[in-house]
Q: What sequence folds into this?
């Protein structure tokens, strides 16, 4: 058990290292760009070269990477170009906003998906199954930006019940809570299609197993069979997938944040990418991968806890 | 026998079950009627697709999606279960009627402890006290003879061996003392020694609890051991019914006669060819108003195909009935002599295996400690040209590993194999010359995976012809058709894909594919174990015939002792990777025995009444992955009923020749002088007369 | 002894004959119709589109809402939305299949090799794929496209690299199971080459699950292309692309919602088409 955990942690660290190096290399392979970016298009080549040397960017990639790592470990993530502020400040602020949004969405989407997936999968081919499955396909087929457009058109434009943007400022008279409804709804709907399909498939599989038949022929009522025998088995396969949704909800919300002008982590990454704010991109990518690794790690442990056949 | 006044525990009254899908109606049972009296054990036998499992689940009113009882009624203790409301049905299931399933592993919930799964049954049926339910579970676990019942309660199903799992399922069924116990192929998939122990247990429990039993099986021997009466099903119809020993001693329906004749007997090699029933069950057989078996029946007359045939009593017997117009006649079956075998004794050896060794490393336990499992240890065997060596053993004995090493699919870790002067053991597959590949062929176990579903039969046969024998396209085509004829299949199969073939046909194609290479040695790994007994014999006979014709040497790997007795010249009995007994077939099948051989032979359920005599029973084996299995002495010591402690568990017995060519690795045999064999009487003596 | 010549009833058709497999499933028929419709639109765009998709009709700006002249209205630059959607279909239906084909080739190839060989080859490829999969896809898009700029080729490459691991996993799983089959052993014993076994014995039996996944992947790729457009890192303007159209007009949703609605409907319907097709295929394979 402990050996397994240590192995996983080492693997996580190795992956983090590899990814951070890749991102670093990708962004800083042509160092001239950075100086050029700072000095602007009208600077002469000599000026660019001078600044490159001054910034130490003419030294080998590996050396600079090790230096960068050293700074990261001291908690210095560098300076953001676009926000003109330390990366750490911007990053934690935006990440906080996104985690807030993601937590709400996660809290809604997981129970909802489990409920719908179970209802659909417990009797394959029933009307309920067909209805829920079709609904799942539809919501999973609509990209988040399109879903944003549809929901905003109805609830913001037509009905006027909700704000069209969620900038987390109470300016236009909308409460923070009302500003969160549409982004959360878009995330939940999009994510739910996928989760429901996964859980349904797993449930269908479980309901075909002989041990479910055993339970029925013990004289158990159907709801009891589902709750006592089927559900836990049906959650084993989708469990890791469910946890991976945290990943999507945190890092993949770029689109939703862009649609609703939500000041989150994703939009920050987009802005950083568009403006080539390298320090911010690197730090953001590290955080994103760290979260991904963490969910995977937790997922593995939870998986083993759910299924006694897995020994870690 | 049921008296008229007694209400039968279970009664089927002209029950017809149909599966309906969008476009088709598939009939599983046709007007099935039978009764199980209180305390009686009734067996339903038949081959795959005869509807026996449908009958079992119909009795619990648990039929799959789209299935329905189209006609007739099923009464449990006089109550038509078709009329019960869901709550009434639930009160019946698990309480007064309970079921034991095929494949116990998947019938138990993998994420619940055994204890919870057992205790939940009484709790569902009115028991309030959890402690009482728990105690009852422990009591039943000890009743089904599981060691350490308290400990087992906290275990999960995957931590138990197959035999233990089935014992747990049986305990679960008996939790509420049901009046009817339905057993659906309860021993299929279990090793023969474990099967024997489970059948004994069923027999004891049913006598102790006075439970009525409906026993569903394809295994006539198992039914003979457990049941009072038997019904034979064919194509969804009851074709014969009666007291079990009367039916098996004097079968009256052609199908029953055929089925019994198909069984290879372990008690004697009677020099006859194995019998098979021609043809296979077709969809029409289920719906025809006339005799369903007529198309395959050697005795069928015009009237059999025209009119419906009633189930009628046999003259002179009140309880034995058959659905056959010629049931009253005495039929003398033509006995085909076994194909003449040249005496293989003097032939030079084609294959010599010496001191073969194979070690697997297995991860197991909480800490993922690695264990070395000796899959094969010190295996030395010889196959003479044109003869058949049978390798017998239960699951985990390493018998298939030998085959895989011969063919190069696995590499040996030690020892040598000489085949026509070539060292095989350490020649990995990729380094084997084409000619060696050609001369060494294999027939696999699983008809469903032996042929590639994407390729036609023609392709499957022509590819080896072209590759291994270098034939041109036209030559290969002609030769493939000839091979199909050889294995008695029509040439128009050439363009078919395997999914259109029956299991027996696929195995014939597999034989043809092996013969395409014109091999000198063929390894057949359980070639018929997946086939119904009536088809099995035909494939085995074909193999024997072809062997004689082309002077093939054959390594026949099997768990079926009856079959082995028929096909083999020499037999090697394997236990956990070691050869415990080896010699000419007649010598191995008669005393003196290795205790394991003895247990194997006495475990095979036989249809012969006399076979219910003395038996040797073994404990369920310890799972092979566990460290407990790696003791220093005889591999069989832990299960051996005649173990000499201080010797067997510390010293590995050497192989000793007890008669020319007959070797046994056992301390008991070696110390024959000291160890008076009065304890180990020759158990099978009654089987031989 | 006679032969058991009567064939067993048909159970499983190794590769579904498309027509009959699809005909029985309403989902498949609907999906096929939707996808077919968009393919037709894409093919006919040069002839059938009423306007040049990039032509600014300033006169229409007075009232850009749908009218007889502009069935779906115009955008804020006076460009005909119907024409832009039609031309946008060309973009999606050109890039998505190429990207999916690239991902499938790469993923299936690696999956076959890794699943068949196992050992360190498998471990190495699987680990790389795990890393790619654990990386949040959109962040990956952002990092790569921000560095190399947006172009059709880069989009194809990015999608191929991020989708290939998924296909790899599927193919690897099936291959690992198929390599245990006895017919594979038979081929190896015959001395067939590594590539022969992969291509002739294993690949044909993977087509079923692979075809379902290709459909699903097409749907997801359509979404991905839309998202890239919406984020402004898709194809450079002014060429019409559905996601880009939504991006440009979203800020005007309170004034002229139709500008964002129509391209949103277009992209959603195409994805639904692909997904329904995938469901139909899967059902067809299970039934056959």
A:
């Amino acid at each position: 058990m402990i050996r397994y955990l240590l192995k996983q942690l080492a693997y996580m660290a190795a992956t983090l290292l590899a990814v951070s190096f890749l991102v670093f290399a990708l962004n800083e392979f042509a160092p001239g760009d950075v100086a050029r970016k700072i000095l602007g298009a009208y600077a002469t080549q000599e000026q660019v070269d001078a600044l490159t040397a001054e910034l130490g960017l003419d030294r080998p990639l590996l050396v600079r990477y090790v230096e960068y790592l050293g700074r990261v470990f001291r908690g210095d993530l560098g300076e953001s170009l676009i926000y003109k502020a330390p990366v750490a400040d911007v990053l934690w602020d935006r990440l906080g906003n996104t985690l807030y949004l993601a937590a709400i969405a996660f809290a809604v989407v997981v129970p909802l998906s489990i409920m719908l997936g179970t209802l659909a999968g417990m009797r394959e081919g029933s009307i309920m199954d067909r209805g829920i499955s079709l609904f799942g396909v539809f919501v999973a087929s609509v990209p988040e930006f399109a879903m944003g457009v549809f929901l905003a058109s109805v609830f913001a434009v037509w009905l006027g019940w909700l704000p069209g943007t969620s900038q987390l400022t109470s300016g236009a008279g909308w409460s923070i809570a009302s500003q969160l409804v549409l982004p959360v709804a878009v995330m939940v709907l999009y994510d739910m299609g996928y989760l429901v399909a996964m859980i349904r498939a797993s449930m269908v599989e479980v309901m075909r197993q002989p041990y479910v038949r055993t339970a029925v022929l013990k004289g158990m009522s159907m709801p009891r069979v589902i709750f006592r025998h089927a559900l836990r088995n049906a959650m084993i396969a989708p469990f890791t997938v469910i946890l991976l949704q945290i990943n999507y909800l945190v890092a993949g919300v770029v689109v939703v944040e862009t649609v609703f002008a939500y000041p989150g982590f994703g939009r920050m990454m987009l802005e950083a990418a568009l403006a080539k704010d390298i320090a911010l991109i690197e730090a953001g990518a590290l955080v994103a991968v760290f979260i991904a690794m963490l969910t995977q790690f937790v997922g593995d442990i939870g998986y083993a806890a759910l299924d006694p056949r897995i020994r870690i | 026998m049921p008296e008229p006044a007694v209400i039968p525990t279970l009664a089927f009254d002209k029950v017809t079950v149909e599966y309906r899908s969008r476009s088709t109606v598939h009939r599983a049972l046709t007007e099935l009627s039978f009764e199980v009296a209180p305390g009686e054990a009734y067996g339903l036998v038949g081959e795959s697709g005869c509807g026996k499992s449908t009958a079992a689940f119909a009795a619990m009113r648990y039929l799959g999606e789209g299935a329905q009882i189209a006609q007739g009624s099923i009464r449990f203790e006089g109550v038509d279960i078709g009329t019960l409301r869901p709550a009434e049905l639930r009160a019946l299931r698990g309480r007064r009627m309970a079921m034991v399933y095929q494949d116990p592993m998947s019938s138990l919930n993998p994420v619940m402890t055994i204890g919870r799964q057992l205790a939940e049954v009484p709790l569902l049926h009115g028991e309030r006290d959890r402690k009482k339910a728990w105690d009852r579970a422990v009591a039943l676990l000890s009743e089904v003879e599981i060691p350490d019942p308290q400990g087992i309660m906290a275990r999960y199903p995957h931590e138990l061996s197959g035999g233990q799992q089935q014992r747990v399922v049986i305990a679960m069924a008996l939790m509420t003392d049901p009046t009817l116990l339905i057993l659906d192929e309860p021993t299929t998939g279990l090793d023969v020694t474990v099967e024997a122990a489970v059948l004994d247990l069923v027999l004891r429990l049913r006598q102790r609890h006075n439970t009525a039993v409906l026993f569903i099986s394809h295994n006539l021997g198992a039914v003979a051991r457990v049941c009072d009466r038997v019904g034979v099903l064919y194509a969804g119809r009851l074709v014969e019914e009666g007291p079990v020993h009367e039916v098996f001693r004097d079968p009256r329906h052609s199908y029953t006669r055929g089925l019994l004749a198909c069984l290879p007997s372990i008690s004697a090699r009677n020099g006859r060819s194995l019998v098979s029933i021609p043809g296979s069950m077709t969809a029409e057989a289920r719906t025809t108003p006339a005799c369903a078996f007529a198309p395959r029946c050697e005795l069928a007359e015009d009237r059999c195909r025209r009119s419906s045939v009633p189930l009628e009593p046999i003259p002179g017997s009140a309880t034995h009935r058959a659905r056959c117009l010629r049931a009253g006649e005495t039929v003398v079956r033509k006995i085909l002599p076994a194909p003449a075998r040249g005496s293989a004794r003097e032939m030079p050896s084609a294959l010599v295996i010496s001191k073969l060794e194979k070690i697997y490393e297995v991860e197991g336990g909480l800490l993922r400690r690695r264990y070395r499992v000796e899959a094969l240890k010190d295996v030395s065997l010889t196959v003479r040209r044109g003869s058949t060596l049978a390798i017998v053993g239960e699951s985990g004995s390493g018998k298939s590993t030998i085959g895989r090493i011969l063919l190069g699919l696995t590499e040996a870790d030690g020892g040598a194999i000489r085949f026509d002067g070539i060292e095989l053991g350490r020649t990995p597959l990729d380094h084997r010359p084409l000619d060696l590949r050609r001369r060494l062929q294999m027939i696999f176990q699983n008809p469903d995976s032996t042929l590639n579903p994407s390729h036609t039969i023609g392709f499957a046969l022509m590819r080896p012809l072209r590759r291994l024998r270098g034939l041109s396209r036209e030559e290969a085509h002609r030769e493939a058709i000839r091979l199909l004829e050889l294995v008695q299949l029509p040439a128009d199969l050439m363009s078919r894909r395997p999914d259109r073939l029956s299991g027996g046909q696929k195995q014939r194609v597999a034989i043809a594919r092996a013969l395409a290479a014109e091999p000198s040695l063929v390894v057949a790994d359980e070639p018929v174990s997946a086939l119904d007994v009536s088809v099995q014999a035909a494939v085995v006979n074909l193999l024997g015939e072809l062997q004689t014709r082309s002077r093939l040497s054959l390594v026949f790997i099997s768990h079926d002792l009856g079959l082995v007795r028929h096909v083999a010249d020499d037999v090697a009995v394997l236990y956990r990777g070691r050869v415990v007994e080896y010699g000419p077939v007649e010598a191995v099948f008669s005393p003196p025995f290795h205790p394991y051989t003895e247990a194997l032979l006495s475990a095979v359920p036989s249809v012969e009444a006399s076979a219910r005599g003395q038996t040797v029973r073994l404990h369920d084996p310890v799972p092979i992955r566990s460290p407990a299995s790696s003791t220093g002495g005889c591999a069989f010591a832990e299960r051996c009923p005649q173990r000499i402690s201080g010797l067997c568990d510390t010293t590995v017995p050497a192989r000793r020749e007890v008669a020319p060519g007959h070797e046994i690795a056992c301390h008991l045999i070696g110390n024959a002088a000291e160890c008076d064999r009065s304890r180990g009487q020759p158990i099978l003596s009654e089987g031989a007369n | 002894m006679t032969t058991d010549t009567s064939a067993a009833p048909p159970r499983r058709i190794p590769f579904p004959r498309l027509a009959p497999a699809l005909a029985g499933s309403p989902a498949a028929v609907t999906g096929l119709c939707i996808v077919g419709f968009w393919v037709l639109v894409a093919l006919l765009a040069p002839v059938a589109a009423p306007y040049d998709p990039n032509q600014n009709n300033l006169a229409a700006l007075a009232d850009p809402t749908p009218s007889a002249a502009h069935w779906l209205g115009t955008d804020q630059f006076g460009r005909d939305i119907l024409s832009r959607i039609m031309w946008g279909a060309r973009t999606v239906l050109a890039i998505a299949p190429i990207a999916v084909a690239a991902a499938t080739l790469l993923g299936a190839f690696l999956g076959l090799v890794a699943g068949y060989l196992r050992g360190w080859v498998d471990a190495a490829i699987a680990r790389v794929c795990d890393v790619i999969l654990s990386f949040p896809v959109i962040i990956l898009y952002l990092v790569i496209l921000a560095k190399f700029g947006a172009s059709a080729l880069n989009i194809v490459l990015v999608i191929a690299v991020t989708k290939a691991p998924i296909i790899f996993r599927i193919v690897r799983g099936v291959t690992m199971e198929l390599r245990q089959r006895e017919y594979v052993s038979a081929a190896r014993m015959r001395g067939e080459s590594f590539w022969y076994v992969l291509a002739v014995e294993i690949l044909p039996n993977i087509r079923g699950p692979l075809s379902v996944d290709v459909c699903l992947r097409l749907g997801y790729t359509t979404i991905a292309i839309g998202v890239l457009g919406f984020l402004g890192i898709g194809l450079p303007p002014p060429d019409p692309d559905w996601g880009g159209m939504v991006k440009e007009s979203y800020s005007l949703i309170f004034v002229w919602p139709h500008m964002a609605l129509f391209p949103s409907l277009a992209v959603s319907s195409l994805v639904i088409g692909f997904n329904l097709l995938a469901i139909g295929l899967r059902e067809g394979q299970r039934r056959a």
